[in-house]
Amino acid sequence: MTRVTIIAEAVVAERIIEDLLRLGASGYTRTEAEGRGSRGVRASEWEGKNQKIETVVRPAVAEAVFDHLVQDYFEHFAVIAYAHPVEVVRGEKYG
Amino acid sequence: MTRVTIIAEAVVAERIIEDLLRLGASGYTRTEAEGRGSRGVRASEWEGKNQKIETVVRPAVAEAVFDHLVQDYFEHFAVIAYAHPVEVVRGEKYG
Amino acid sequence: MTRVTIIAEAVVAERIIEDLLRLGASGYTRTEAEGRGSRGVRASEWEGKNQKIETVVRPAVAEAVFDHLVQDYFEHFAVIAYAHPVEVVRGEKYG
Amino acid sequence: MDWLISHAAMSTAELLRLNLFSPVILCFFLGVAATLVRSDLKFPDALYQGLSIYLLLAIGLKGGAALSASAEAGLWLVLAAGLVLGAAIPLWCYPVLRWLGRFKPEDAAAVAAHYGSVSVVTFLAAIAFLRAMNEPFEGYLPALVAVMEVPGIAVALLLVPRPAGSGRVWGETLHTVLAGKSVFLLLGGLFVGMLAGERGMEKVDAFFVAPFAGVLCLFLLEMGMVASRRFGDLRRAGLFLIVFALLMPLLNGAVGIGLGWLCDLSRGGAFVLGVLAASASYIAAPATVRLALPAASPAIYLTASLGITFPFNLTVGIPLYFALSGWLYGV
Amino acid sequence: MDWLISHAAMSTAELLRLNLFSPVILCFFLGVAATLVRSDLKFPDALYQGLSIYLLLAIGLKGGAALSASAEAGLWLVLAAGLVLGAAIPLWCYPVLRWLGRFKPEDAAAVAAHYGSVSVVTFLAAIAFLRAMNEPFEGYLPALVAVMEVPGIAVALLLVPRPAGSGRVWGETLHTVLAGKSVFLLLGGLFVGMLAGERGMEKVDAFFVAPFAGVLCLFLLEMGMVASRRFGDLRRAGLFLIVFALLMPLLNGAVGIGLGWLCDLSRGGAFVLGVLAASASYIAAPATVRLALPAASPAIYLTASLGITFPFNLTVGIPLYFALSGWLYGV
Amino acid sequence: MDWLISHAAMSTAELLRLNLFSPVILCFFLGVAATLVRSDLKFPDALYQGLSIYLLLAIGLKGGAALSASAEAGLWLVLAAGLVLGAAIPLWCYPVLRWLGRFKPEDAAAVAAHYGSVSVVTFLAAIAFLRAMNEPFEGYLPALVAVMEVPGIAVALLLVPRPAGSGRVWGETLHTVLAGKSVFLLLGGLFVGMLAGERGMEKVDAFFVAPFAGVLCLFLLEMGMVASRRFGDLRRAGLFLIVFALLMPLLNGAVGIGLGWLCDLSRGGAFVLGVLAASASYIAAPATVRLALPAASPAIYLTASLGITFPFNLTVGIPLYFALSGWLYGV
Ligand SMILES: Nc1ncnc2c1ncn2[C@@H]1O[C@H](COP(=O)(O)O)[C@@H](O)[C@H]1O
Ligand SMILES: Nc1ncnc2c1ncn2[C@@H]1O[C@H](COP(=O)(O)O)[C@@H](O)[C@H]1O
Ligand SMILES: Nc1ncnc2c1ncn2[C@@H]1O[C@H](COP(=O)(O)O)[C@@H](O)[C@H]1O
Ligand code: NA
Ligand code: NA
Ligand code: NA
To answer: Based on the structure, what is the number of domains in chain C?
Structure first.
């Protein structure tokens, strides 16, 4: 399985999560984070912190997620993403 | 060394941490998280968020942790776990 | 690219982040965490929780970060660090 | 319409109206509405925690100050009665659920545990109701909450064969008796209030007494959101559970009021004992039951206690139990 | 110097002084100072959330209680006027920004959306100002905020060609009308206050009314920190944007006061309509605009609304609009 | 027993009793009890932050309003005296620790830094005590806290050979003088209170003045939990550290009271200067020392300041210093 980590400004986090589930993720885990990057665009500080979204998915789904992020979010929003393989307990449930 | 990540509903987090240390982990780090999975059982929302527990351990300990989770928690509680190898600074301290 | 994770007591977190950026990281993401380790020194509980700092960098930068942590922080402060390779979306921006 | 004086003569319908249109209950409805219109209103966890710490401590302090002013006889009798009542309630809840409702043992015991324990927020609302009615009550009632929180849970857990690892749970349950934060703040507040005395507490009344009803409004706004998130499970709950969650409080409430009367409590006191008996826990019980009976379904016990009984008691139950106590005390 | 009575005769300079030296505005400056000296003072997010929930609910409750006491005619006319005004403001803001200011369409629409919507905190400060002046106003004004929050945003978004995926945004925008937390708490508070009545609200006045001005101080301390973090962008903002953010509120404020006068509002009411028209949103609008017009630069619209117009209205605008309303009403 | 009037004639034992049974101190004990019974009671971080912001700002505002009412001569003299005293305390603490206690240089300097600085919460408790005694004091005392927070830390750090990278620490320490949040809120509150004046502050008294003592109770409940978590380290601390942490406050307190008397402070003012001198920092000092002297053991300096001196001052020290000041002022 592949673990994908996405860090996104709060305003698009809900939307990215919906997209993830649509693209085949069986679940996700989200934590609040704070950070700095190279672009620094952000709608408003008190709209909320960055969200760090993690999802464990099949490699094919990870590919699809990456493609989708590049296409829909990378241009205008503060979003980064990275992935690496993980071994999961009872992998069958991540379908 | 192996980094094990466990995401568990709040009610069992303390217990899982105790188990980790007993099975040979030298430490752990815990953050609050929110998430959705395939089962969705949870005692109560205001009992607290999910806990994301991370521990860096020897591969053998990781195995033991995985086995223990499957046996004691997977049936009734909202718990997932995954692992991957990491390179640590001064690995000797994780005994 | 390499993802480096650093867990540090609150009092040195700002300082470590400055160091990271100076050593060549293009950004970082930080979350609040709580934990236990083998040393357990900490200035004060209400100075704040541990900070978990994550940065995605070139492998050479990761090396430099590791060296720097060992030299400046490991002796007196509660700090651990580990790293592993990740695949990133549009790696070019982490220069 | 001088209801402060003439309430003795109020009909149940008038009491009901008075309760439903109090700011506290209206705020609860507002919280329900927030969920229904899917508002993005959300109480941060720290606010929820802060409000509960305040409410529990304040009610304890107030009770303690009242106690310091007048030594109240009968205290121990009433506490014992409360303890026995809490422990006894699961003894009739379990069989009803198990054989009439055909629930599996774990689920029956889990629900019984919730009804044996008490709801602190329902208690706070009952106290606010008594104050609005200018009806006096015993100062030590917060201690009653502390005493009644745990026995019902313990007895209910004894009703099912103990699963593996339950020794650990028993230790934890016992520890909850002494150290759980709601019990701790209520009892701690009582002690502080008693030691400081009415004179000492005057200095802090502007914080702990005057704003109390308003803070309770804010808290019930949040509780309205929490409770109504359970409404979605109502359809799946089945008719039996709904009927149980509406009728069992009435039975337990009547028993509590009667017992209070036997113990020579004031009318207000008997009413509060009734409310406590009628109420179902949704804080201590779910956490304990989740660990002790992991095979029981949270959807069942939370829907019953939080989704049905809690709103029922808050809106209809409280004026009903008050009317009942009036009838028993002949006012 | 009995200003409580003689304020009718106050000069604009006196009003300005009175506003600048009120604790509420001084706390705002203190927040600005915290940023300037790089203090480590920081409001935890939960505190900020808790304070806003309190302020919004409190102002709604107070308005509702006032409404219940006196049925106010003209309510619907005023709400309609507010809605139309909010929707109209972008129609003159957009061309000014687009052709005078030479902003690209997305940026012009984004800024126009902010000025079409309203700032709740500016509204709260205006109410606190009226209370300090002992100037009466209509009880339903919180409803006006609710009505004016969204139309301006919607109209401004219509002014640019719709980007892909905007259908989703429209649904979200519509939902914001009904369920956004500021609108929800203001309207919800109004309903609760009306149903509970003045009598019912008395019990919770010690929490929702007496401490209101003090809580607002604390909140403005935080707002001072937030607004001043935008000051760094001022240099890059360009002169045109700065002039726009100072003059447009004056125009919109005057139009609002005039409209209030036409609708037969009291002087205080017309002043509040003016303040709302003059104010620029920095909560609802940025979130919506960020999603609907991702190509617009947050640095532009937030600098204008939060870094310039908000502090301007708070310090200079409020006394100015009050003086203007006095002049129009001939006091 | 009309203690409000007759306190001048109170014995030290009576003062002690009065302090120990005040709600504020009882709540501190309740917090200690929470740790001892291992209650799951926990203050969310945001609540702790919110309460400190409130307390610091409120005490500053109140002081500022008092100052605006009466220009107080001697202000600068007293501030200078406080500054010098804070800077001097480490000069005798360090040798005692280093040569009598045989601590290593870093640990001796670290502890000295804590006793040279001040504890804001102890100051707040002293003010609450004066108010309960109806004893007047100078309005500008909050400024004294601000002035005394940093010099002692700076001097103590100079006593050990500077480690590498300490230049950075010095810059940070200096910045703390101006911008640390406790100093900032106290001084900021003073300014706001002075500019708004007593008249202006009246509007916000219901929030910043009336509930003050109650909020302090809540805060000390948390402080009781925090301090008692250090009790576990007491056994390892060694007898010398315990004796030091009990006697040094007495010495410093006496010096402070005497200095206040020389500066012509009121009795209440001299008492407060004594309390500040006697108190040991556990917020500014630990954070600075951790960075500047990483080789010093937090277990030593936190146990002394937070585990021993803080509870000692709060319970026994405050009435003692008050009695001492009464003796010196001949009342
Ligand atoms: N595929 C996944 N990726 C990341 N986190 C997950 C995934 N599935 C479940 N989780 C997390 O594990 C918790 C329990 O999952 P479950 O037991 O499937 O309901 C969820 O609340 C999520 O936080
Ligand atoms: N084996 C481990 N796995 C995960 N986190 C750890 C581990 N050891 C230490 N930590 C984290 O690092 C912090 C400092 O550890 P230490 O310096 O060993 O006390 C702890 O508070 C934990 O948050
Ligand atoms: N190299 C990096 N390592 C870790 N997190 C990063 C990195 N670059 C950016 N981020 C995170 O992604 C967010 C958006 O980055 P950016 O779009 O570059 O401003 C930042 O606020 C950080 O939380
Ligand atoms: Na019950
Ligand atoms: Na506007
Ligand atoms: Na000192």
So the answer is: 1
Domain of residue E85: give its range: 44-328
CB distance B71 to B55 below 8 Å: no
Task: Please write the tens of the pLDDT for every residue from F123-158.
Answer: 999 999 999 999 999 999 999 998 998 899 989 989
Q: What CATH code is carried by the domain that includes residue C63?
A: 3.30.70.120
D22 in any annotated domain? no
Please report whether residue E19 resides in a domain.
Answer: no
Are the C-beta atoms of E137 and E269 separated by less than 8 Å?
Answer: yes
Query: D45: CA distance to ligand 2 center in Å?
Result: 26
Q: Is residue E9 part of a domain?
A: no
Q: By the CB < 8 Å criterion, does B46 face chain D?
A: yes
Q: Which atom number of ligand 1 is nearest to the Cα of residue A25?
A: 1
Q: Is B51 in the A-facing interface, judged by CB distances under 8 Å?
A: no
Q: What is the tens place of the pLDDT at every residue in E242-277?
A: 999 999 999 999 999 999 999 999 999 999 999 999
A7·C1 Cβ contact <8 A: no
F61 in any annotated domain: yes
Pick from E93, E144, E142, E149: which is nearest to E117 by CA? E149
CA distances (Å), origin A26, targets A29, B35, B43, E39: 11, 11, 21, 44
Tell me if chain F has a CB within 8 Å of the CB of E4.
Answer: no
Chains E and A touch (3+ CB pairs under 8 A): yes
Residue of A nearest to E297 (CA): A41
Tell whether A92 is within 8 A of chain B (Cβ): no
When CB atoms are compared, the residue of E26, E39, E45 closest to F196 is E26
Token pair belonging to D81: 């009665």
Residues from chain C contacting residue F291 (CB–CB below 8 Å): 11-12, 15
The alpha carbon of E245 is separated from its chain's Cα centroid by a whole number of angstroms, namely 14
Q: Which domain holds residue A90?
A: 2-94
pLDDT band for position C44 (cuts 50, 70, 90): very low
Tell me the ipTM for this assembly: 0.92
Contacts of E among chains (3+ CB pairs under 8 A): A, D, F
Distance CA E37, CA E225 (A): 11
CATH number at residue D226: 1.20.1530.20
